[in-house]
Amino acid sequence: ITRVDHPCFQQRGLFAAEALSAGTRVLRYCGVAKLRLVGDRGDYLFALKDFCGDIDIDIDAGPAGNESRFINDYRNTGSAQPNVQFTQARSETGEAEVWVEVLKHIAESEEILVSYGGQYFSNSDDSD
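Predicted structure:
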């Protein structure tokens, strides 16, 4: 990211290589599936919610993930809202998956942005 006013200045982001249409599943969020530990935090954790019965599972893209881990939060980027969301699904074999799904048209070279949710930001009282 080269924009000085971007919250992730001099860090990574994910940008569309081509125009993307709303409703398109762009790629899966990949990483190591692990049991959630109390107090466990990381920059690349995705919590599977109500997906594995009573077991709390995280997908940790830090040690082994794909480019989806570089999707930044939309806040303070100049975008009024996210243009993608993470969507939980089941594969044809029944395995839990997380997809990056386009919410609204994304132009070629536009940054792909999601809402991390208010809980991600410890000083935030945002609740989405």
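Summary: The beta strands are 25-28, 32-35, 45-48, 57-60, 72-73, 84-90, 96-102, 113-114.
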